[in-house]
Amino acid sequence: MTARTTGHPDPARADAGLAFFSTWRVGSPERAKAAIDAIAHAWEGRPWPHAGLLSYSVHEGVGTDEGTLMHHSQWRDEAAYDDFFRGLSDSAGNGRDERNAEIDAAVPGIERLGLYRTRRYRSGGLADPDAVPGLIVLTRTAFDAPDADRQRAWVDAVFGAAEGGGPLSSGDVRAHFHLSLDGATVVTYAEWAGAEAHDAALTVPGLTGRYRLALSLVPGPAA
User: Fold this and answer.
1) Which CATH number goes with the domain that contains 13?
2) Given Cys at both, which of 6, 16, 104, 146 links 183, Cβ 3.0 to 4.6 Å?
3) In Å, what is the CA distance from 48 to each residue of 101, 119, 160?
4) DSSP-assigned beta bridge partners for residue 30
């Protein structure tokens, strides 16, 4: 079964081999809330789709990002997601397409803006790892050509700059750096104490979205 939780996902959990991030544009805060309700109905009304899916969370855009939703899912491995994508789950009607069709029927016109398949590389920051974040900031830093070595070197440089007042020097942030599997992008999932702390800080460069947790789903106990 599928269970709802009030807790944030743990981006650094050791059993997550992959993390996927995607963004939907829904057009307004009202439509965003309707889409969140539709997602909850589509997921909670079905069994958990695959043992290899560890968590699925939806974050609602705030400020200039109102009207968007950011999706974050953690997977054991690529094979688990491929099963879900192709509808190879434990029961009929339990794949990705069936869920999205139900959501689209409830909230027509959702724009799906792409999917980043990533693997977490490093996590760091001075914030208490047990603190509940008040703001999630997702930053996508793209390179002009795929280069896995450059991805890692870029993240390592951010950590190296922390002692000199870099993006990780704030006591209000804990950041998790993910490398896209195609070698072209670094996706930074940053947990901030709140919007004020983020506004006042030096942050990593890239295309940034600001969100708050709206829905967090995990596998429930077996029936």
Assistant:
1) 3.30.70
2) 146
3) 17, 22, 41
4) none
Report how far residue 54's alpha carbon sits from residue 217's, in angstroms, rounded to the nearest whole number.
9
Q: Are residues 188 and 84 in the same domain?
A: no
Beta bridge partners of 167: none
Backbone angles phi, psi at 156, to 5 degrees: -60, -35
Distance CA 106, CA 83 (A): 25
Domain that holds residue 159: 120-206
Each residue of 23-53: pLDDT tens digit? Answer: 999 999 999 999 999 999 999 999 999 999 9
Is residue 138 pLDDT above 70, yes or no?
yes
Rounded Cα distance between 24 and 111, Å, is 5
Specify the amino acid at residue 63: G
In whole angstroms, give the CA distance from residue 48 to residue 30: 27
pTM: predicted TM-score of the whole model, two decimal places: 0.91
